[in-house]
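Reopening closed ticket. The problem is back. First fold of the pair:
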Amino acid sequence: MGVLQAEGPLAFFLDFDGTLVEIASSPEKIQVPRTLPQGLIRLALREDGRLALISGRTVENLRSHLGDLPLALAGSHGAELFRSDGTRIGDEPAPLPAPVGQAFASFAARHSGVEYEAKKYGAALHYRIAPELEATANAFAQQVAAQSDLRLKHGKCVVELVRWGANKGDAVRAFMAEREFSGARPVFVGDDLTDEDGFAAVRDFGGFGVIVGQRSETCALYRLAAPRELGSWLQL
């Protein structure tokens, strides 16, 4: 870390699930390390506020797990953006149409092992405990996406629908336009397919990506084996 900092100020953009915390069998069964919230605050202070969490979870959900921390937050894959003081960047996004959530909930009810995750700005089907249903879940989500003009996002044992324009790369660009982050060398850390947009975006600003885990196809420059290694590297 010291060598990187010697080259100029850094800005950190961190994914949540699979990056800061281990992935669980369902989104609400994650175990957040007791020391993580204060560790993030210390990192933000060391970097003069140049820290943002960028997650597929809603900002409200992130706060339910971490508390109301004075950190910049991007939720719903970048659809909602907040500065560290709690003010919103841009307009509040439109929620997904109710029939989309109803269709996903009905699908999950019909398929044992599939869990529907309701989000204000998205809808997700998790099949971690029933991986044999991946093709079925993806085909159904693709059909709903086409009917509703929504974007399909794939992740680790999850398929999700969001509105067009919600991606982690644009979240990075929005934060880099803020005075707090401007001029810094950005580092994006993530583990999943949706983080590739973030990895690509930081390269445009002279930064680099760090992938967590064993996924092989990535444009990240560096790799860490697990969230605990990220915690050690960032002194969380």
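Second fold of the pair, where the issue appears:
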Amino acid sequence: MNILAVANQKGGVGKTTTSVNLAAALTDSGKRVLLIDLDPQGNATSALGAEIENPPTLYGPLTGSASIESCLTPTRMGNLSLIAANLDLAGLEIEVARMEDHLGQIRRALQPLRDSAAFDFAIIDCPPSLGILMTNALVAADQLLVPVQCEYYALEGLGKLMFVMGQIRDSGANPSLSLSGLVMTMFDRRTNLSEAVIKDVRDHFQEVLYDAVIPRSVRLSEAPSFGRTILEHDPGGPGARAYRQLAAEFLKRNEANLSFVNAPAAP
């Protein structure tokens, strides 16, 4: 099982939208995918329209009160499972911080799923902060995917995220963590700004920038309110096409075993 953390400490960049729809697109490609909602707001959980009332979260495995297998919630997409989130995870940061080897708790909790090979990929939708939960996700992950919004301050905060990634590798907590890449989100072809931002990011991160660009789309915005992925809500629309392209690129990079061990520094 390959674990991908989708993270950006900057909120509102399309992180959850990317986590949910990349998971759906990989499932559509025949892969067995686990989506892990690590954000206490639980937006990825509601976006999938989880029908179980109060579905189990990572709280149980991380506190030793439940097994990781008992936290798997099936979805209507047969090859896609969910580990849900709710506000209980907000207090989990404090509890995990008090534990021995506190940075490795999610890695330890997910190990039985790695051993069982029940999934091809696990995608972790991280909270928008550089706290204990996100750091745990990076220690557990094989790769990091960073959604970057097409706006003026697109590169703001990327340097800090890359620094944390480097610290995690160099400390030995997860020396094999690699940068899967950056994906541009909320692209508006009607504005010169979006094109200029993509050019700016490409100038600094040429090797790791995905070609797929996620458009700003009403359909993408409204899909979660129906509890659907964009592949279900508007399967022929630009948002669905973009996430299918992203999934295809992601799989190609993994099949080619591309590993950007030395992530580029932000400008």
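Update: turned out to be a display glitch only; the data is intact. Residues 258-263 have pLDDT under 50 and may be disordered. The chain has one domain: 2-255. Please close again.
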